[in-house]
Amino acid sequence: MIKRIVLAGGGTAGHLFPSLAVVQQLQKLTAQAEVLLVGARVGLDQRLLPQTGLPHHFLDARPFPYGVSLRLLPSLYRLVASTIAAGRLLRGFRPTIIFGAGGYVAAPVVVAGRLLGIPAIMHVCDAYPDRASRLLSRWAQAITVTFAEAIPHLPADKVIHTGGPLRQQILTATAAEGRELLGLETDRFTILVTGGSQGARRINEALVAALPALLAMGNLQIVHLTGQQDYDTVEKQAQQIGATAPAYQCHAYLEQLGPALAVADLVVSRAGSSSLAETTARGKPLILIPYPYAAGHQKYNAAAVQEAGAAEVIDNASLSGPVLTEAILELYNDHSRRETMAAASRQWGRTDGAERIAQLLLSYSQ
Question: Which of 99, 181, 206, 303 could form a disulfide with 7 if both were Cys (CB 3.0 to 4.6 A apart)?
Answer without folding.
Answer: 99
